[in-house]
Records
---
Amino acid sequence: MNTKMSDNVKKIVEQNNTAKRPHRHLSPTTDGLLHPPFLPDELIFQILLCLPVKFLVQLKCVSKSWKTLISDPKFAKTHLRSITSITHQRLFSSRLTGKLGKIISFAVKPMFENPSKPTDPVEFSMEHRFRILGSCNGLLCLFDTEGGYVKLWNPSIRYESKNSPTLRFFDLVSWIWL
């Protein structure tokens, strides 16, 4: 890990670490329970950086300090920088069927490792007919072809933004090309 990244890790951990945890070892206590060994905050931080967003959202309930750390915008930026280097990249395509739409996702890495083997897509059913306008940092910008509004969608946690104001077609075209 480079020095700048290490310094950033220390700063974020220090800011989010309000109280130091006591060192624990696997040994019976007076209550007869075994306690897990102590893991340094920097090690926990590095482990969390390697996990997909979907799991990070689930891990917010582990403790208040984890929730604070995972919710920190600085952690999110550091996570984004580290996760993009791990090649968890996906291709997305939209498919319109009747009044419903589907967003189809393919992992990129297996396509390059074994191009002759078909990859299994992940399909997300959508309530409306959406077209993918673009993506940035794992978020998809979707356009409802019937309602004329734009949404941001995070497929990792299946979170959709609220609808934008309705856009007329020529507004959308000029908006895309800005």
---
Amino acid sequence: QVKELLLSGSLIYPSLLLGAILNSSGFGLAPVILVGNKYNRVIEREVFIKEGSILAYKLEYNFIKAFAKNYINIKKAFYNIIRQLRR
């Protein structure tokens, strides 16, 4: 399940939401990756890439920059999740 963690232009700390994000079996947490969308459109971005990257580092998540409209790094994000599931 893909969650958008934006509210009024600022990140909602994912650590506050993790209790509600369970894997499909109901045991444990689902794999998480933070995605910085629209990385090539500075003006349209609501959260800066650096903010997302720092938050991902603090929470020990993977972080990837993407541009969904042009499918840039979308497969890479999903492959990252699959790798996490296989661990």
---
Amino acid sequence: MFSKLQYSILIYCTIIICIFDYRTDATNVTFIPTPIRITVADLPAPFTTQSANKDGNIIPVPSDPQISVSVGFTVKLFIDDLITPRFLLYTPTGDILVSEPSANRISCLVDSNNDGYPDERITFADASNKISRPYGMAFIKGYFYVANSNGIRRYPWIRASRQISGEGEQIMDIDPSGHWTRVITMSPTADKIYIGIGSATNNDADPLPRASVQLANLDGSNRTTFAFGLRNPIGLAFHPVSNELYVACQERDGLRVITMSPTADKIYIGIGSATNNDADPLPRASVQVANLDGSNRTTFAFGLRNPIGLAFHPVSNELYVACQERDGLGDNLVPDFFTRIRQDEFYGWPYAYMSPNLTDPKHTLSNGSSVRPDLVARTRTPDVLIQAHSAVLDMLFYTGNQFPSSYKNGAFAAFHGSWNREVGTGYKIVFIPFNNDNRPMGHYEDFVDGFLTNPRGPDTFATPVGLLVLKDGSLIFTEDGNNRIYQVQYQQSTSNSHCQHFVSVVFLIIWQLFSFLFKHEIN
């Protein structure tokens, strides 16, 4: 049996191990971030390089993965064993929802012992609730909204419930072809919803509401086009200070995202195109806005190939979108982008990209003029251009208090990674800084990197997707390659972090030693 001294040492070791966090399963390599700025003048001519077809090769997580993170921060595993985790959302009672489209379900992650980490997964919704490839989610005025590939459904939500019941109400139908992801956000006035709808093609002309941002009442009524020409408006968010709407867009590449207006009276839905660069009819490739019940849906912005992220800035209340752009024009065309969007703006897809001076070859006549010069002339230049084929998949504004003040009200974006580039790119989390006027500074910088182990493969052990700021101010993100969620925390000094990890390892060794002594009943 143990002596009193051995028992005492065991108790102290247990206490110290509980204090020091040993969840880190990766070696963190810190770096000082540098601005990455891409301008219209930097863009090559179409077909300067051949168009590659190289999907990312998902490799198992290495036994000692090397994850790069901005200096002062640490990255560690938050939870694993999910099924293609995508979008993240807090419930009003503090649980975490994660959409898992390939499993056709939404999971509720519960922290039952209040240690800051989920220890239970409950199915919040599945096919029995008419869930169909769920992506964007929102809680608005007593309802739970989900952006399925085939439209927007809402369900009455009973406070503290960890499962929804019934089939809910389909408040808006959307063609599920092409870009199937849908993003949705609520207006700062909480009376409208904005929906991002990707195009049906890569760069063929789709009729509205494809490749646009749509605006509607909360019940889905009175839907109109808010902005258009956005191939795949994959992220939408209102700025936390200015309340202006920003979009992150993936060019020429279906997801649905949804966000609520800051006034809580509208919902905004991003709907991607059905194709790469064929013209899709609206509401494809647009952001739609509607009433909270889905009525009065209109197009808010369009020409957005796949508007995959939508969010209102927390100060300006302007709507921002992250958009995936078109493929097939070469390694460095066409940039994805992040930008503020306003009513009736057009962002080029499929006739132009980034500027009225850059027309898509597929829609250019032999004399050099566009088949739609009227729309080309309206093409807006986005606020921040992103390396082509990065495949931005989500964005959010940082409103927590853990990170340094320079991150406050700036945006984070998740890059899922390329398939249409000779040398792989993306597979990381980036930060988009804002200035004192609550506008983007025009560049982005790497924040978490290192998952791409062989760019020529490309080989990667993580494909980032969804983002969420936790209540303690840390950041978590999903990745659907090895089905994990990672957590990023700020440390006062990286040396403290390394010391903490070292001490944890030492005491784990001590614990194993005394377990051995106990097993052999050594006095």
